[in-house]
Write a structure and sequence with these properties.
Number of strands: 20
InterPro entries: 6-hairpin_glycosidase_sf
Mean pLDDT: 92
CATH class of the largest domain: Mainly Alpha
Largest sheet: 5 strands, antiparallel
CATH topology of the largest domain: Glycosyltransferase
Length: 490
């Protein structure tokens, strides 16, 4: 690679020690960021093209040596991961003002721009550092406007917003490139607005990305919000409204009714990866639907455990694995955005508990992010089975999640929590499902219970005396020993 090992180590140290700027909605704090960019830097490769330097992010790195591994059919690097990395570095620059992060983001953005066709659509993969574009693989073709175009718009929209002062030329170029792509969004998908159809009693909008793709639409919406902030106009406002309207329509069930208030990903499926509807809707100010998922579905994941996917038609068809950082980010950062919008601390607590999956609060009991190396491991394949490969997607998603959660003290304090086993109990005719989480704080143990009141369909977060009283009462009913454990300090 073009960079020296010394530079990589220096940058990793700088990120670990820098203090963030003040969040305009919360008091100023200085803290160490728990992210290490060394592995992401290892995955990255700078390529000179004319007078410009572009940055590739290699898609895979496999244990135990973590050398780059390319896909023989798809290629070596893609817009998906370059855009992810650009969002991370732009966010770091936005929070710190450090030009090292800006310059890295600019190189990643140049790669994204290189992959855009003249008509505005994006190819996804290059085969090698010769920048030879894969134009034929299904995961790389430019048509139609889909996942990689959505992620490209997220990065370009954020660049248009964040770089206005520091690099106005690139900010303007990013805005123009995003708008060229959005012509195809309008012509291909939004032209269907407001058509709907019913499937198994569920109302479906037909104007989202891929017609019914609420997942891809959520990541696109994150870019549109930033682009509108940078260069507002009525067209962008309409697109944001239409996508938000469609995503909100694809929310079904409630805390006690399948599929439990989740935002669906597709016609008949929910999956965790890329399902960032609450993150996007909260950022756009559509709080009712975001709150509903945060209070009905996300707590269920914390109490009963993470899933990979579930059927909307059959509550027994649940796929628990592979559990991945890409799904955890959508939940944790979605909750952070709700906290930022509302100031309600319960969302920050839930965000910290969700992100604790990365530090070892998971079924395998293994940290899925290694702060010593900066590796984000690729997932939990099954009970006790960890995939220790550390590709770009998992690493970037882990870094981004930790960055956002760690900025807020009420979330940060639960980042290293550990959960007890889930409990179901009926007391005085009321059905509860709950789980207690504990974290060591110096000389004391702090505990919180995530309680699903399934009869009233109400979320309760209990701490202190309220938690002690709840455990005593349900302990008498269920024979559980939580109350005794609480009395002795867990």
């Amino acid at each position: 690679m073009a960079r020296s090992r010394l530079f990589v180590l220096w940058l990793s140290y700088w990120v670990l020690s820098v203090g963030c700027r003040t969040d305009p909605q919360h008091p100023a704090t200085l803290f160490e960021l728990p992210i290490n960019l060394a592995h992401l830097e290892h995955l990255s490769e700078d390529v000179v093209r004319g007078d410009s330097v572009l940055r590739l992010v290699h898609i895979y790195a496999e244990a135990p040596d973590y050398r780059w591994v390319d896909d023989p059919d798809e290629g070596a690097a893609c817009v998906d991961d370059a855009a992810r990395a650009a969002v991370l570095y732009l966010r770091l620059y936005e929070l710190t003002g450090n030009d090292t992060f800006r310059h890295t983001a600019e190189k990643l953005l140049r790669f994204v721009l290189y992959m855009q066709r003249a008509d505005g659509l994006f190819y996804n993969f290059v085969y090698s550092n010769q920048l030879d574009i894969n134009t034929t693989h299904p995961n790389s073709r430019a048509e139609p406007f889909g996942w990689w175009a959505s992620r490209a718009v997220w990065a370009l929209g954020m660049a248009a917003d964040v770089l206005q002062e520091a690099n106005p030329a690139l900010a303007s170029q990013a805005a123009r490139a995003a708008r060229r792509a959005l012509v195809h969004l309008d012509r291909t998908w939004l032209v269907r607005y407001p058509r709907t159809r019913r499937v198994q009693g569920r109302l479906l909008p037909e104007w989202l990305v891929y017609r019914y793709g609420a997942d891809a639409s959520s990541e696109l919406l994150l870019g549109l919000i930033r682009l509108q902030n940078a260069t507002p106009d009525t067209m962008l406002a309409r697109m944001i409204r239409q996508l938000a309207e469609g995503m909100q329509m694809m929310q079904y069930g409630s805390m006690a009714r399948h599929p439990y208030g989740a935002h669906a990903s597709w016609i008949d499926t929910w999956h965790g990866w890329g399902n960032a509807q609450t993150q996007a809707l909260a950022a756009a100010g559509y709080l009712q639907s975001a709150r509903y998922e945060a209070e009905h579905f996300y707590p269920r994941l914390l109490v009963y455990g993470w899933m990979y996917a579930m059927s909307l038609d059959d509550s027994t068809r649940v796929q628990r694995y592979e559990q991945i950082a890409y799904a955890v980010r959508c939940v944790a950062v979605g909750l952070i955005r709700l906290y930022e919008q509302t100031g309600e601390v319960r969302y920050a607590i839930l965000a910290g508990l969700a992100a604790s999956w990365l530090t070892g609060n998971n079924e395998a009991g293994v940290p899925m992010y290694d702060p010593a190396t900066g590796r984000g491991y690729d997932g939990i394949r099954g009970p006790g089975e960890v995939n220790y490969n550390a590709g770009a997607e998992s690493t970037i998603e882990a870094l981004y999640t930790l960055l956002e959660v760690y900025r807020h003290e009420p979330a940060r304090r639960w980042l290293y929590a550990r959960g007890t086993s889930p409990v179901e109990v009926t007391r005085d005719g009321v059905r509860y499902a709950y789980r207690v989480f504990r974290v060591q704080e110096k000389q004391r143990v702090r505990s919180v219970a995530v309680v699903l009141n399934l009869s009233a369909e109400r979320l309760e977060l209990l701490e202190g005396k309220a938690l002690q009283q709840f455990l005593l009462e349900v302990g008498r009913t269920s024979g559980q020993y939580e109350a005794q454990a609480y009395a002795t300090g867990f």
